[in-house]
Amino acid sequence: MPMQTVKMVITGPFSAGKTEFIRSISEIDVVTTDEGISPESAEYGTKEATTVAMDFGRITVDDDLVLYLFGTPGQRRFDFMWEILAEGMLGFVVMVDSAKPETFREAKSILETFRAYAPTPYVVAANKQDHPEAWSPEDLRIALRIEENVKLLPCIATNKESVKNVLLELLYSILEEMDT
Amino acid sequence: MALKGNLADFSTTQILNLINLARKTGTLRIYEPIVTDETITDGQGNKRKKVVPGEERATIAFREGKLILATRGDQDGHLANVLQKAGKLNAAQAKVIRERGAGYSDKALALMLIGANYVTQADVVRSIQQYTLDIVYDVMTWTAEPFVFEENITPSPERITVPIDLKNVIIEGTRRAREIKPLEEELPNLDMALKFPEAPGDKFRGIHLSVEEWRVVSFINPKNSIRQIAKACNMTDTEIRRVVYGLLQAGLVELVKPPGMQPPQAAAPVRRSQTQQSAAIKRSVVERLIAKIKET
Questions:
Q1: Fewest CB atoms within 10 A around its CB: which of A53, A77, B43, B198?
Q2: Contact in structure between B85 and B75 (CB atoms under 8 Å)
Q3: What ipTM, to 2 d.p.?
Q4: Which residue out of A61, A111, A149, A165 would a mutagenesis test of the B interface target, given it has the greatest number of B Cβ atoms within 10 Å?
Q5: Mean pLDDT computed over every residue of chain B
Q6: Which CATH architecture has domain B180-256?
């Protein structure tokens, strides 16, 4: 039987937790295209490395079915990769750092961009809910103007159960879409 | 839970919208911006100087989504001053009342002034309302200050508070907004259309719109793009953005795609292959993925 692969995209602003999200659930070590951040770079001091092209994780369901998780680069200068990664995706997750209001505008912009790429189901993950300054999912829904029919889920990307919940909710949304 | 941020990223209008829609009770504190040598990174990965709170510049209190009181750090919000600013007391009267009424709460002082026929109850209410609004409209033009919203913190019971509907405040504040750039970021696509939310009659009750704004409202229909409405009303892009932004933030209208709106050109090829991909994936595949992730 030929191998079938399906793809989900994990997107969001710079430092929203996309790489951590994939790392928490992937059965293989995440294949990253991170590069170290040089002292001249704008990101120097914020994190040790940043995703340049994509992150790649895998969940093997069976001999004939594999789920690939692709994480997009957060920086706008690599946004040419977004459309390539979006091609053929089953659905996507928009990660938002709940404790960084300075990234909310970009999160909304990325969400709208991916909605325009493909009419696939998506969920919004309100990441870093364990941070003391995290905005609640209810407040984020209003701040990001997320419609009521779109799932906005609390998330801690370093917690496997939390990541599983986000992916399951996305898959349930995909099932619901198939029913309509 | 406190909401922290900077008005550069989340404007006063957006905060008021959040408080209005979530019917929040609490106090918004806005601080003088102190620029440090530390840096933070925005959502695009651009670095900028970290701004930390300095002295408190204003506090704005809310109860169940309504504005109830505002004070400024550089103004003495004593009731005598508020009444003097509103023209209900002259300078000499205000001075005497400040001196003699130093130990009294606002409520006690108001009762004394009303009893002595200096002012009426309506004078007190209107003066506090106007004082509060003047501060909030001023704050709505600030663009770089750190803020904290503390839930369930309200003014002392001895203060006089006047509930004010935030929808009108948002619309008026947007009229006065100086910065146009955030409006372009918030409303980049004028080819979108507008529709009324559910029960628009309830939402528009008590709303004070200008003639210009009513003209825009009269053209709202999911078939009309914002650009078409601007043309019909003879408005520039900036003018229509300002009006629509105010209506959106006040929850009076919602953005929708007009019929026949074309997706962005870059998205078209992906959309086609996406459709093919979706058709190829069967329900059983998704169910197997669900089962696998559950057991992972």
A1: B198
A2: no
A3: 0.88
A4: A61
A5: 87
A6: Orthogonal Bundle (1.10)
